[in-house]
Amino acid sequence: MGPQIGRAALGWAVFLVLASGVLLLTLAPGTPEFVVTLFTLCLGLLLGLVVVVGVVITRRREKREGGS
Asked: Pick from 53, 62, 51, 60: which is nearest to 4 by CA?
């Protein structure tokens, strides 16, 4: 994963989490909008997790290859 791709994906993840988090505070539970926004929050968290795991794996691989 290139650094630019990871940075862009992390930016999108942060945007999704922040935007949906703020919207969840204003929406009434049980409405369709609330469910879609909650789903968006979960997708943002999942995207952020995938990016972080990808960065950790890449750094470990680079550290292992550089040390040998």
From this structure: 51
